[in-house]
């Protein structure tokens, strides 16, 4: 196969964005587009007349017009479209998150494993971020030593009430399946695993439903992660704080690395922190440390386009996928555990019981469904009350 014929499902903001650059991806061709909204489909046909149009994704994947599917639909539909496409012999590149629940993400990973001849990738484009790529390289090379702490304050996801009023599906359990963890933070949660290769064994958290917005899903979460090797993690996020912070600290036996503001700073200990702590005869001594700003190469291209190029290269040249579909389980499981722990105020052990989480989500839908009171103007609907309890847009 020299040219991969790609069909895009979903022509909202992300789907249209993908259509814009696909013709510039070597070895790719935008062959088909699908959306149930006739106006969106008509507008897309005007911009990309060379692509065939469909109102049904089932019809598109069975048309014989495409070799691969790019899924850019709402979260709940990702598993069905992905699994069906793989079963029909099509390669899949799916937007994040892989699914709403860990059980569905595991189903997707299993489907990918059943079809090893097909490529199944996820659009985790932060894996192409040069700062994070270098951070991963340093950690995986062992320069930081054994990891002892991971702390990520990611509170720069500020959103206005108007944002949540812009779509009836936004910030609802039935339409989106979650709030800041599922909508804004999938990339960050993916990085927690991808950077370190570590998965927590237990998570405790405090989460708030509609703390700063009149919505029915979580808009603030503070979590603590425990790791089997003794490391501790912290993850703090919200859509209600300004000015926000995006600071990632990872401490290890050879010092601490900080990623912030597009820079990577390594405060490197000249010797093992553990060895110094256990053997130095002075009571208040600290190991000598050197501050180093790690050089970062500029990004080679638009991150989303790079992910699509990697996907096409994987199909044509068997290039390894930057974000294999099976990896979608990792970050989603961390996010599901944070939400469950945060709402119940009870620790959650990993791996999560998939059925238990689906029951928990059903309970949230029943308890909080309908509490989103934002009107089209961006303010609260009449008579409603609000509960008081790296360049990304989602």
Description:
This protein is α/β, with parallel strands linked by helices. Strand 4 (68-71), helix 4 and strand 5 (91-94) form a beta-alpha-beta unit. The model is unreliable at 376-394 (pLDDT under 50). It folds into two domains: 4-126 and 302-327, NAD(P)-binding Rossmann-like Domain (Rossmann fold, 3-Layer(aba) Sandwich); 129-298 and 331-368, Dihydrodipicolinate Reductase, domain 2. It is built from 13 helices and 15 strands. Strands 14-13-12-11-7-10-9-8-15 form a nine-stranded mixed beta sheet. The chain has helices at 13-22, 38-47, 57-61, 78-87, 102-114, 130-140, 161-165, 180-184, 186-196, 273-279, 303-317, 328-344, 354-368, and strands at residues 4-9, 28-34, 52-54, 68-71, 91-94, 120-122, 147-154, 202-209, 218-226, 232-238, 246-252, 255-260, 263-269, 289-293, 348-349. The protein is globular and about 75 Å long. Helix 4 runs parallel beside helix 5, helix 6 (130-140) runs parallel beside helix 9 and helix 9 (186-196) crosses helix 12.
CATH-defined topology of the largest domain: Dihydrodipicolinate Reductase, domain 2
Shape call:
globular
Q: Provide the structure class.
A: alpha/beta
**Which series of helices and strands comes N to C?**
EHEHEHEHEHEHEHHHEEEEEEHEHHEH
Major sheet: 9 strands, mixed
Overall mean confidence score, pLDDT: 93
Q: In DSSP terms, counting alpha (H) and pi (I) runs of 4 or more, how many helices?
A: 13
Rg calculated over all Cα atoms: 22 Å
Task: Give the number of DSSP strands.
Answer: 15
Please indicate the percent range of residues in DSSP E strands (runs of 2 or more): 15-25%
Assembly annotation: single chain
